[in-house]
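Renewal narrative, Specific Aim 1. Our central claim is that a sequence can be written position by position from structural information alone. The example that follows is taken directly from our test logs and has not been curated for this report. It begins with the structure tokens describing the chain, in the order in which they were read.
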């Protein structure tokens, strides 16, 4: 089965490597592949937990709406089996409005899945009344049945041998409307797609409440304002106590109304993690009475299914269901002698076996060399470090999923950088308490006479930065504005520093690189003084030259003007005179 054929799959490009689905998946059916959390179909039980918790909607359920549209377009009579949890799902919508909206999509009619629930309860009441001892598990939830057959196969024989309410209802509808009809289930569950895939002779398709809302919206139908068809109703008789089924304990409540079970212990378990914990040791125990356990994969029941809206609390949803049951005072309990028996086959997951040496090698890669190093924090999504190591060996997990390993590696890199950088470095929080520093910082700013009575030289974590440097205002300013600050020629204890304060977590954590430039500044000052002396001497010389040149130019100008004047006045009275220079050139 390809990933898109499975009821659940991952949109690879949307996955953000948060590993939340790994942490939440009760059966660890997630494989990290190409930096994406992919669902492993053969391990998955379609509980929808990953779908429900994914923060970026990378997990999606298979969209069967187009297939439902094709069924309607084919001209076949297509009916809806509507889950009883609809009353908690569609806010302020009447039954008549919802049924009108659904039929407007082209469906021939809508019937209540709760009718099948009553048939199942009737059969279970008879079944349990004949038992004297033993543990019997409900089969109403396909995700739970899948979990038992895959992960607790020793309990497969404890599953009650009856159909789920949905399949019982499909059989009932086909008997009433003809075996050639098509049936689409609408409800809160993703695992119902398993039932449609494996029981196509009864159930053709399963779509979710979310799918239905989207389909109605695409058709431009507003079921809040729609005018209901005259006399519209469910196409079969109304259900009664079967409407209890979507809440925790609802199945038990319905069975009790059929009587015959006074000598049966009844209890309910919801949530696969709770089921796993409670059922792991019941196989070999002996009980003097029959015990029936209602088991649902979703905590609180189907009203909290993965495809339900989360606008209401579980309490509010439960009240909606109870009020709906109370409103059907005249409906009679469904009962039938039709055969709804069903056997459930084991399909155990075969786990790979790894010896201690293989596990130890992985743990060593994680920096876990002793039992004390195995902190079992569950940050990777696995119960303990050894199970995580097994997942790495199986190719389901990556080393970098280990939070403590990443933290240790990051700390080692940070320490190496702090150690190698020659300048003093200090990192502080919003209160200017020291979080990290290097030895150069200690060498530069530790003073025995000031600090020895307050701090230990080898451990300044938590120390107040104000006790060591006078320019903490730069750190405070950076924390306040959430931006980096650079300041040159900052003086402290007769030294000169260039300071760069950088943000690590804006307004929370900043770091400072402090470079001692005292020698450079002294050298610059000496060079500046020498340059000033040279400039002053040169300026004096230039001024003297300029002054001398000025005097010479004045004298020359007077002389030349006198000669020109004399030459002009005597030009007409004197004979031509040729002047030869010393080299004989004219």
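The sequence written for that structure reads:
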């Amino acid at each position: 089965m390809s990933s898109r054929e499975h009821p659940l799959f991952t949109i690879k490009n949307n996955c953000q490597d948060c590993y939340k689905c790994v942490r939440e998946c009760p059966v660890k059916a997630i494989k990290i592949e190409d930096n994406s959390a992919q669902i492993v179909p053969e391990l998955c039980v379609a509980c929808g937990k990953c779908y429900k918790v994914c923060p970026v909607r990378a997990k999606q359920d298979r969209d069967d709406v187009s297939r439902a549209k094709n069924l309607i377009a084919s001209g076949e009579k297509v009916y809806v089996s509507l889950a009883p949890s609809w009353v908690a799902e569609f806010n302020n919508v009447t039954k008549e409005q919802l049924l009108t909206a659904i039929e407007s999509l082209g469906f021939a009619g809508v019937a209540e899945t709760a009718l099948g629930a009553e048939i199942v309860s009737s059969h279970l009441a008879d079944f349990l009344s004949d038992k004297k001892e033993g543990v019997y598990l409900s089969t109403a939830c396909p995700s739970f049945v899948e979990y038992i057959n895959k992960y607790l196969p020793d309990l497969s024989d404890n599953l009650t041998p009856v159909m789920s309410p949905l399949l019982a209802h499909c059989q009932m509808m086909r008997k009433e409307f003809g075996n050639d009809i098509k049936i689409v289930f609408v409800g809160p569950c993703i695992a119902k797609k398993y039932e449609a895939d494996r029981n196509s002779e009864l159930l053709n398709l399963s779509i979710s409440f979310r799918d239905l809302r989207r389909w109605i919206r695409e058709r431009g139908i507003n079921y809040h304002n729609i005018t209901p068809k005259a006399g519209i109703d469910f196409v079969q008789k109304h259900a009664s106590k079967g409407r209890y089924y979507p809440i925790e304990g609802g199945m038990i409540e319905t069975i009790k109304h059929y009587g015959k079970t006074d000598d049966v212990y009844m209890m309910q378990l919801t949530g696969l993690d709770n089921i796993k914990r409670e059922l792991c040791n019941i196989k070999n125990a002996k009980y003097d009475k029959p015990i029936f356990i209602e088991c649902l994969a979703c905590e609180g029941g189907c009203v909290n299914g993965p495809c339900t809206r989360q606008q209401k609390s579980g309490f509010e949803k439960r009240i909606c269901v109870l009020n709906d049951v109370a409103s059907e005072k005249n409906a009679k309990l469904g009962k039938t002698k039709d055969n709804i028996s069903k056997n459930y086959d084991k399909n155990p997951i075969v786990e790979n076996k790894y010896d201690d040496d293989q596990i130890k090698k992985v743990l060593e890669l994680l920096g876990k060399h002793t039992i004390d190093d195995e902190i079992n924090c569950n940050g990777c999504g696995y119960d303990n470090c050894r199970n995580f190591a097994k997942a790495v060996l199986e190719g389901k997990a990556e080393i970098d999923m280990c939070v403590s390993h990443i933290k240790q590696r990051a700390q080692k890199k940070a320490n190496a950088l702090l150690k190698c950088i020659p300048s003093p470095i200090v990192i502080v929080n919003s209160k200017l308490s020291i979080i990290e520093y290097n030895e150069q910082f200690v060498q530069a700013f530790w003073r025995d006479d000031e600090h020895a009575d307050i701090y230990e030289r080898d451990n300044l974590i938590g120390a107040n930065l104000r006790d060591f440097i006078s320019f903490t205002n730069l750190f405070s300013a950076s924390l306040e504005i959430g931006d980096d600050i650079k300041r040159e020629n900052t003086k402290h204890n007769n030294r000169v520093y260039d300071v760069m304060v950088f943000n690590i977590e804006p307004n929370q954590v900043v770091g400072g690189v402090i470079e001692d430039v005292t020698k450079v500044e002294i050298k610059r000052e000496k060079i500046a003084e020498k340059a000033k002396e040279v400039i002053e001497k040169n300026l004096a010389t230039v001024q003297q030259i300029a002054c001398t040149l000025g005097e010479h130019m004045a004298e020359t100008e007077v002389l030349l003007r006198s000669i020109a004047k004399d030459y002009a006045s005597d030009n007409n009275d004197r004979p031509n005179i040729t002047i030869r220079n010393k080299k004989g050139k004219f």
